[in-house]
Design brief:
Elements lengths: L5 H21 L7 H21 L5 H22 L9 H25 L22 E4 L1 H6 L1 H7 L6 E5 H11 L4 H19 L5 E4 L9 H11 L3 E4 L2 H9 L4 E3 H7 L9 E9 L6 E4 L5 E5 L8 E12 L2 E8 L6
Parallel strand pairs: 1-2, 1-4, 2-3, 4-5, 8-10
Antiparallel strand pairs: 6-7, 6-9, 7-8, 9-10
Helix pairs in contact: 1-2, 3-4, 6-8, 7-8
Amino acid sequence: MDKTLLPIRLVFVALCAAGGWLVCYSISDWDQYWGAALAIGLCIGLLVVLVDILLKGFSLRGLSAVTVGIAVGSLIAYLVGASPLLQEGDPKIIYLVRLGLFLVCPYLATVIALRGKDEFNLIIPYVRFVPHEVDVPLVVVDTSVLIDGRIARVCEAGFLTAALVIPRFVLNELRAVADSSDPHKQARGRRGLEVLNDLRRIKHIDLRVTESEVSKREDVDAKLVFLAQSMRAKLLTTDYNLAKLAEFHGVPWLNLNSLAKSLRPELMLGERLEVDLVKPGKEDGQAVGFLEDGSMVVVNGGRPLIGRRVEAEIISILPTAGGKMVFARHIVTPAP
Protein backbone atom coordinates (compact mmCIF):
# COMPACT_ATOMS: atom_id res chain seq x y z
CA MET A 1 0.00 0.00 0.00
CA ASP A 2 1.26 3.47 -0.87
CA LYS A 3 2.44 5.15 2.35
CA THR A 4 1.52 8.60 1.09
CA LEU A 5 -2.12 7.54 0.62
CA LEU A 6 -2.41 5.56 3.86
CA PRO A 7 -3.37 8.58 6.07
CA ILE A 8 -5.97 9.71 3.53
CA ARG A 9 -7.49 6.24 3.38
CA LEU A 10 -7.61 5.95 7.17
CA VAL A 11 -9.33 9.33 7.46
CA PHE A 12 -11.83 8.32 4.75
CA VAL A 13 -12.70 5.05 6.54
CA ALA A 14 -13.11 6.93 9.83
CA LEU A 15 -15.41 9.47 8.16
CA CYS A 16 -17.51 6.66 6.66
CA ALA A 17 -17.88 5.08 10.10
CA ALA A 18 -18.78 8.46 11.60
CA GLY A 19 -21.28 8.98 8.80
CA GLY A 20 -23.00 5.72 9.65
CA TRP A 21 -23.26 6.74 13.31
CA LEU A 22 -24.52 10.19 12.26
CA VAL A 23 -27.35 8.64 10.26
CA CYS A 24 -28.49 6.77 13.36
CA TYR A 25 -28.12 9.88 15.50
CA SER A 26 -30.24 11.98 13.14
CA ILE A 27 -33.11 9.47 13.10
CA SER A 28 -34.64 9.17 16.56
CA ASP A 29 -36.11 5.70 16.07
CA TRP A 30 -32.71 4.27 15.16
CA ASP A 31 -30.82 5.20 18.33
CA GLN A 32 -30.47 1.60 19.43
CA TYR A 33 -28.86 0.59 16.12
CA TRP A 34 -25.88 2.95 16.33
CA GLY A 35 -23.41 0.04 16.63
CA ALA A 36 -24.69 -1.65 13.49
CA ALA A 37 -24.74 1.65 11.60
CA LEU A 38 -21.15 2.33 12.70
CA ALA A 39 -20.09 -1.11 11.46
CA ILE A 40 -21.93 -0.67 8.15
CA GLY A 41 -20.27 2.72 7.58
CA LEU A 42 -16.87 1.17 8.41
CA CYS A 43 -17.45 -1.70 5.97
CA ILE A 44 -18.50 0.70 3.22
CA GLY A 45 -15.33 2.74 3.75
CA LEU A 46 -13.14 -0.40 3.69
CA LEU A 47 -14.91 -1.61 0.55
CA VAL A 48 -14.26 1.69 -1.25
CA VAL A 49 -10.58 1.60 -0.21
CA LEU A 50 -10.34 -2.00 -1.45
CA VAL A 51 -11.75 -0.95 -4.82
CA ASP A 52 -9.23 1.91 -4.85
CA ILE A 53 -6.36 -0.55 -4.27
CA LEU A 54 -7.64 -2.93 -6.97
CA LEU A 55 -7.75 -0.02 -9.42
CA LYS A 56 -4.07 0.76 -8.84
CA GLY A 57 -2.45 1.62 -12.17
CA PHE A 58 -5.81 2.46 -13.74
CA SER A 59 -4.84 5.65 -15.56
CA LEU A 60 -6.84 8.62 -16.79
CA ARG A 61 -6.73 7.09 -20.25
CA GLY A 62 -8.43 3.99 -18.84
CA LEU A 63 -11.09 6.12 -17.16
CA SER A 64 -11.64 8.01 -20.41
CA ALA A 65 -11.96 4.73 -22.28
CA VAL A 66 -14.51 3.41 -19.76
CA THR A 67 -16.53 6.64 -19.95
CA VAL A 68 -16.70 6.67 -23.72
CA GLY A 69 -17.37 2.91 -23.82
CA ILE A 70 -20.37 3.24 -21.48
CA ALA A 71 -21.67 6.27 -23.39
CA VAL A 72 -21.34 4.62 -26.81
CA GLY A 73 -22.83 1.33 -25.57
CA SER A 74 -25.76 3.11 -23.95
CA LEU A 75 -26.39 5.06 -27.14
CA ILE A 76 -26.40 1.87 -29.21
CA ALA A 77 -28.74 0.18 -26.72
CA TYR A 78 -31.10 3.20 -26.82
CA LEU A 79 -31.14 3.34 -30.63
CA VAL A 80 -31.85 -0.39 -30.91
CA GLY A 81 -34.49 -0.23 -28.16
CA ALA A 82 -36.23 2.71 -29.81
CA SER A 83 -36.15 1.13 -33.28
CA PRO A 84 -39.30 -0.29 -34.94
CA LEU A 85 -38.03 -3.79 -34.07
CA LEU A 86 -39.25 -3.35 -30.49
CA GLN A 87 -42.38 -1.26 -31.05
CA GLU A 88 -44.85 -4.13 -31.02
CA GLY A 89 -45.09 -7.19 -28.82
CA ASP A 90 -45.49 -8.21 -25.21
CA PRO A 91 -44.50 -5.20 -23.04
CA LYS A 92 -42.75 -7.47 -20.52
CA ILE A 93 -40.63 -9.11 -23.22
CA ILE A 94 -39.80 -5.73 -24.76
CA TYR A 95 -38.77 -4.43 -21.33
CA LEU A 96 -36.50 -7.45 -20.74
CA VAL A 97 -34.93 -7.10 -24.20
CA ARG A 98 -34.22 -3.40 -23.63
CA LEU A 99 -32.81 -4.16 -20.19
CA GLY A 100 -30.54 -6.80 -21.73
CA LEU A 101 -29.39 -4.33 -24.39
CA PHE A 102 -28.48 -1.75 -21.72
CA LEU A 103 -26.46 -4.41 -19.91
CA VAL A 104 -24.72 -6.05 -22.88
CA CYS A 105 -23.98 -3.07 -25.17
CA PRO A 106 -22.21 -0.84 -22.58
CA TYR A 107 -20.23 -3.86 -21.35
CA LEU A 108 -18.99 -4.81 -24.83
CA ALA A 109 -18.24 -1.20 -25.76
CA THR A 110 -16.32 -0.67 -22.50
CA VAL A 111 -14.24 -3.83 -22.97
CA ILE A 112 -13.37 -2.86 -26.54
CA ALA A 113 -12.39 0.66 -25.42
CA LEU A 114 -10.19 -0.69 -22.60
CA ARG A 115 -8.40 -3.08 -24.91
CA GLY A 116 -7.46 -0.18 -27.16
CA LYS A 117 -6.77 2.40 -24.45
CA ASP A 118 -3.09 2.68 -25.45
CA GLU A 119 -4.17 3.90 -28.89
CA PHE A 120 -7.14 5.81 -27.52
CA ASN A 121 -6.99 9.22 -29.18
CA LEU A 122 -10.56 10.50 -28.78
CA ILE A 123 -10.29 12.30 -25.44
CA ILE A 124 -8.92 15.83 -25.76
CA PRO A 125 -6.47 17.15 -24.60
CA TYR A 126 -5.00 13.73 -23.75
CA VAL A 127 -4.34 12.83 -27.36
CA ARG A 128 -1.21 10.76 -27.94
CA PHE A 129 -0.24 11.22 -24.28
CA VAL A 130 0.36 14.95 -24.88
CA PRO A 131 -1.26 17.26 -22.29
CA HIS A 132 -0.76 20.50 -24.19
CA GLU A 133 0.83 20.58 -27.65
CA VAL A 134 -0.59 17.73 -29.69
CA ASP A 135 1.90 18.14 -32.54
CA VAL A 136 4.98 17.61 -30.36
CA PRO A 137 7.07 14.75 -31.83
CA LEU A 138 7.34 11.75 -29.52
CA VAL A 139 10.11 9.22 -28.97
CA VAL A 140 9.52 6.00 -27.00
CA VAL A 141 12.64 5.08 -24.99
CA ASP A 142 13.82 1.50 -24.53
CA THR A 143 15.58 0.11 -21.43
CA SER A 144 18.79 -0.43 -23.39
CA VAL A 145 19.02 3.30 -24.13
CA LEU A 146 18.86 4.24 -20.45
CA ILE A 147 21.48 1.63 -19.55
CA ASP A 148 23.70 2.79 -22.44
CA GLY A 149 23.88 6.28 -20.92
CA ARG A 150 24.70 8.33 -24.01
CA ILE A 151 21.12 9.60 -24.33
CA ALA A 152 21.68 12.09 -21.50
CA ARG A 153 24.67 13.68 -23.26
CA VAL A 154 22.81 13.79 -26.59
CA CYS A 155 19.82 15.52 -24.96
CA GLU A 156 22.03 17.89 -23.00
CA ALA A 157 23.72 18.94 -26.23
CA GLY A 158 20.30 19.82 -27.67
CA PHE A 159 20.36 17.36 -30.59
CA LEU A 160 17.18 15.57 -29.47
CA THR A 161 14.25 17.94 -29.01
CA ALA A 162 11.36 15.45 -29.13
CA ALA A 163 9.40 14.53 -26.01
CA LEU A 164 10.81 11.35 -24.44
CA VAL A 165 8.12 8.82 -23.50
CA ILE A 166 9.17 6.17 -20.97
CA PRO A 167 6.60 3.41 -20.35
CA ARG A 168 6.07 2.26 -16.78
CA PHE A 169 7.11 -1.30 -17.63
CA VAL A 170 10.48 0.01 -18.85
CA LEU A 171 11.04 1.64 -15.45
CA ASN A 172 10.01 -1.61 -13.74
CA GLU A 173 12.42 -3.59 -15.91
CA LEU A 174 15.21 -1.12 -15.15
CA ARG A 175 14.51 -1.37 -11.42
CA ALA A 176 14.57 -5.18 -11.64
CA VAL A 177 17.99 -5.06 -13.32
CA ALA A 178 19.28 -2.68 -10.62
CA ASP A 179 18.04 -5.10 -7.91
CA SER A 180 19.65 -8.12 -9.56
CA SER A 181 22.02 -10.33 -7.57
CA ASP A 182 24.45 -10.30 -10.51
CA PRO A 183 26.90 -7.42 -9.81
CA HIS A 184 27.32 -6.64 -13.53
CA LYS A 185 23.57 -6.40 -14.14
CA GLN A 186 23.18 -4.43 -10.93
CA ALA A 187 25.79 -1.89 -12.07
CA ARG A 188 24.08 -1.56 -15.46
CA GLY A 189 20.67 -1.06 -13.85
CA ARG A 190 21.97 1.57 -11.43
CA ARG A 191 23.64 3.41 -14.27
CA GLY A 192 20.30 3.44 -16.08
CA LEU A 193 18.60 4.95 -13.02
CA GLU A 194 21.32 7.60 -12.80
CA VAL A 195 20.82 8.43 -16.48
CA LEU A 196 17.08 8.76 -15.86
CA ASN A 197 17.77 11.24 -13.05
CA ASP A 198 20.16 13.13 -15.33
CA LEU A 199 17.40 13.41 -17.94
CA ARG A 200 14.99 14.80 -15.32
CA ARG A 201 17.50 17.51 -14.46
CA ILE A 202 17.77 18.72 -18.07
CA LYS A 203 15.35 21.64 -18.17
CA HIS A 204 14.61 21.73 -21.89
CA ILE A 205 13.74 18.00 -22.10
CA ASP A 206 10.06 17.00 -22.05
CA LEU A 207 10.14 13.70 -20.15
CA ARG A 208 6.89 11.72 -19.78
CA VAL A 209 6.03 8.43 -18.09
CA THR A 210 3.09 6.42 -19.42
CA GLU A 211 1.17 4.01 -17.18
CA SER A 212 1.50 1.00 -19.46
CA GLU A 213 2.16 -2.48 -18.09
CA VAL A 214 2.99 -5.92 -19.48
CA SER A 215 2.11 -9.27 -17.93
CA LYS A 216 5.18 -11.15 -19.23
CA ARG A 217 8.80 -10.17 -19.75
CA GLU A 218 8.67 -11.57 -23.29
CA ASP A 219 5.97 -9.03 -24.20
CA VAL A 220 8.16 -5.97 -23.57
CA ASP A 221 9.54 -5.63 -27.11
CA ALA A 222 6.13 -6.17 -28.72
CA LYS A 223 4.55 -3.65 -26.33
CA LEU A 224 7.22 -1.05 -27.11
CA VAL A 225 6.58 -1.41 -30.84
CA PHE A 226 2.82 -1.27 -30.27
CA LEU A 227 3.09 1.91 -28.17
CA ALA A 228 5.31 3.64 -30.71
CA GLN A 229 2.94 2.59 -33.50
CA SER A 230 -0.24 3.70 -31.72
CA MET A 231 1.29 7.01 -30.59
CA ARG A 232 2.82 7.65 -34.02
CA ALA A 233 6.15 8.01 -32.29
CA LYS A 234 9.69 6.92 -33.06
CA LEU A 235 11.39 4.17 -31.09
CA LEU A 236 14.79 4.94 -29.55
CA THR A 237 16.85 1.81 -28.87
CA THR A 238 20.31 0.24 -29.07
CA ASP A 239 18.83 -3.27 -29.39
CA TYR A 240 19.34 -4.48 -32.96
CA ASN A 241 16.60 -7.12 -32.77
CA LEU A 242 14.07 -4.63 -31.39
CA ALA A 243 15.00 -2.17 -34.13
CA LYS A 244 14.37 -4.81 -36.80
CA LEU A 245 11.04 -5.72 -35.19
CA ALA A 246 10.02 -2.05 -35.27
CA GLU A 247 11.13 -1.79 -38.90
CA PHE A 248 9.01 -4.84 -39.77
CA HIS A 249 5.93 -3.12 -38.29
CA GLY A 250 6.67 0.16 -40.07
CA VAL A 251 7.73 2.01 -36.92
CA PRO A 252 10.58 4.50 -37.46
CA TRP A 253 13.45 3.89 -35.04
CA LEU A 254 16.53 5.71 -33.84
CA ASN A 255 19.74 3.94 -32.85
CA LEU A 256 22.45 5.64 -30.82
CA ASN A 257 25.06 3.29 -32.29
CA SER A 258 24.15 4.45 -35.80
CA LEU A 259 24.36 8.04 -34.59
CA ALA A 260 27.81 7.44 -33.12
CA LYS A 261 29.05 5.91 -36.38
CA SER A 262 27.71 8.79 -38.43
CA LEU A 263 29.53 11.29 -36.20
CA ARG A 264 32.94 9.71 -36.69
CA PRO A 265 35.26 12.13 -38.49
CA GLU A 266 36.38 11.24 -42.01
CA LEU A 267 40.10 10.57 -41.89
CA MET A 268 42.35 11.07 -44.93
CA LEU A 269 45.80 9.87 -45.87
CA GLY A 270 48.48 12.33 -44.84
CA GLU A 271 46.28 13.88 -42.14
CA ARG A 272 47.91 14.50 -38.78
CA LEU A 273 46.26 13.61 -35.50
CA GLU A 274 47.05 13.30 -31.81
CA VAL A 275 46.54 9.96 -30.11
CA ASP A 276 47.17 8.48 -26.66
CA LEU A 277 49.24 5.31 -26.93
CA VAL A 278 47.99 2.66 -24.50
CA LYS A 279 49.55 -0.70 -25.43
CA PRO A 280 52.14 -2.29 -27.75
CA GLY A 281 51.17 -3.47 -31.24
CA LYS A 282 51.74 -6.83 -32.91
CA GLU A 283 54.78 -5.76 -34.92
CA ASP A 284 58.09 -4.57 -33.51
CA GLY A 285 58.09 -0.88 -32.65
CA GLN A 286 54.32 -0.49 -33.02
CA ALA A 287 52.01 0.98 -30.39
CA VAL A 288 48.22 1.10 -30.31
CA GLY A 289 46.02 4.04 -29.37
CA PHE A 290 42.37 4.97 -29.72
CA LEU A 291 40.61 8.08 -30.98
CA GLU A 292 37.69 9.63 -29.08
CA ASP A 293 35.19 7.82 -31.33
CA GLY A 294 36.79 4.45 -30.53
CA SER A 295 38.74 4.01 -33.78
CA MET A 296 42.00 2.10 -33.28
CA VAL A 297 45.24 3.69 -34.43
CA VAL A 298 48.42 1.66 -34.93
CA VAL A 299 51.47 3.95 -34.75
CA ASN A 300 54.76 2.72 -36.23
CA GLY A 301 57.71 3.62 -34.05
CA GLY A 302 55.49 4.49 -31.09
CA ARG A 303 56.30 1.60 -28.71
CA PRO A 304 58.85 3.57 -26.67
CA LEU A 305 56.20 6.27 -26.16
CA ILE A 306 53.43 4.10 -24.66
CA GLY A 307 51.51 6.08 -22.04
CA ARG A 308 52.11 9.39 -23.80
CA ARG A 309 50.13 11.51 -26.25
CA VAL A 310 51.94 11.75 -29.57
CA GLU A 311 51.40 13.31 -32.96
CA ALA A 312 51.15 10.91 -35.90
CA GLU A 313 50.58 11.05 -39.64
CA ILE A 314 48.08 8.69 -41.30
CA ILE A 315 49.67 6.39 -43.86
CA SER A 316 46.90 3.80 -44.33
CA ILE A 317 43.22 3.24 -43.44
CA LEU A 318 41.76 -0.28 -43.29
CA PRO A 319 37.94 -0.71 -43.07
CA THR A 320 36.83 -3.36 -40.56
CA ALA A 321 33.50 -4.71 -39.27
CA GLY A 322 33.85 -2.65 -36.09
CA GLY A 323 34.84 0.59 -37.83
CA LYS A 324 38.21 1.66 -39.21
CA MET A 325 41.75 0.67 -38.34
CA VAL A 326 44.17 3.50 -38.92
CA PHE A 327 47.90 3.02 -39.50
CA ALA A 328 50.13 5.99 -38.86
CA ARG A 329 53.76 6.86 -38.30
CA HIS A 330 55.08 8.78 -35.39
CA ILE A 331 56.13 12.32 -36.22
CA VAL A 332 59.28 13.22 -34.38
CA THR A 333 59.06 16.80 -33.17
CA PRO A 334 62.40 18.52 -33.72
CA ALA A 335 64.11 19.79 -30.62
CA PRO A 336 64.00 23.58 -30.22
